[in-house]
Amino acid sequence: MEQSYLTSNGVQVYSYRNSKIGSFAISLFLRSGLIYESEETSGFSHFFEHCVFRNINAVMGGKMYETLDRCGLDFNALTHTNYIELTIGGAVSHFDDAARIIALALSPIVFGKTVLDAEKRRIKSEIRENGSSSIERFSDKTVFSGSSIENKTILGKVTNIDRFSLKMLKKETESILTKENMFFYVGGNFSDASLSEFYSLIENQRVYSGQKRENKVTFPEDFGKRDCAVAVKNAQSTEVCITFDVSATDCTLQELLCLWDTLFLGESCPMYRELSEDLGLIYSYSDTMYIFDGFAGVSVIYEVRGDKLMQSLETVFDMFESAKTESEKRLPLILPFFTDDGDILLDDAGKIVSDFGYYNHILSCGYRNTEDMKNAFRAVRGERLNELARKVFKPDNLVVAIKGNKKKIDMEAIRRTAACRIGK
User: Fold this and answer.
1) Cα diameter, the chain
2) 127-133 long-range Cβ contacts below 8 angstroms, 24+ apart
3) pLDDT by residue (tens digit) across 274-284?
4) CB atoms inside a 10 Å sphere around CB 301
């Protein structure tokens, strides 16, 4: 059962214990991300995430990395669209060491300009290697056009990074480390004494007050009226990103997850079986989902030979069309991943803190335990998935972004194909 505790300085700590495993994980969640940034400060949350590590190391006199290695601890972080998650974990015997380290994430900034400049150089290298050239970034320009996150990225722009100063970092830290917008999640194996000591460590840190942030983004200007928007960018290889708009009023989170996974999860899913195994058009693909209060979106990305682009799109569009009648039949093939496998979460301390922290306290699912989570998925009905597929998988919700040989890509042919195959 998930437990909760409010420290004397107002920080919420959630915990989910499994004393039968030999590991633990502690995550710090911060409601920060590009949905809370201006275009000029886009990338600051990611920048802050990096600086937290630098600052902890400075507070520890430069000994953080040696301590992590000596204790066999893994300490990493991710900045998402709407939150930051820092996670440290390892063997139960080093819980107290890890707790002391991650509690220092709340410390005031103490490092100087030399350290700041070094980190800025690292982030600019990351932008250069992974930034604006990605198919996801190119697709987002169309998907989020006219919304409050238009022209923003998690990594930000080099010009933004150049402007970030120590003064700005210290000021913005006070708006990020607020008790209303942070919480810790502890999972795996730990003792009552160690958990109590962790509460004390948090209580010794200064936290700020602020207004609670909401997971809201203004709707894209063409949301639900895309008429199969097609965007093409010139590139040597051919990559495709297909995105559908989803209205939050159309479904529950569990229904949306199940609908999407009937197409993309498991060894027998249509995407893998038809495009990879049967036709050999692709080897792998990635799928993702963004969820905000009011609306969501689902995307799939794959790379294909340029001369096989239209064949791949025809196959994928047919796959989405089949979901309007076949999702009910496919549901039993993916439900075990959420029901039968639900308690496997308890064997993975890192996954339990990440999943329950996100779904329960960013998206407010309200699961008390894994049984609640499993029951929420057991309640999903196949006929509802067929109905949802008919609402979602249609040209009005569709954005197709392609990187490839622009001279050989017929955008009108793609629109006609979409209208013919999923416009029924």
Assistant:
1) 66
2) 127/43, 127/155, 127/156, 127/157, 127/158, 127/161, 128/158, 130/155, 131/155
3) 999 999 999 99
4) 19
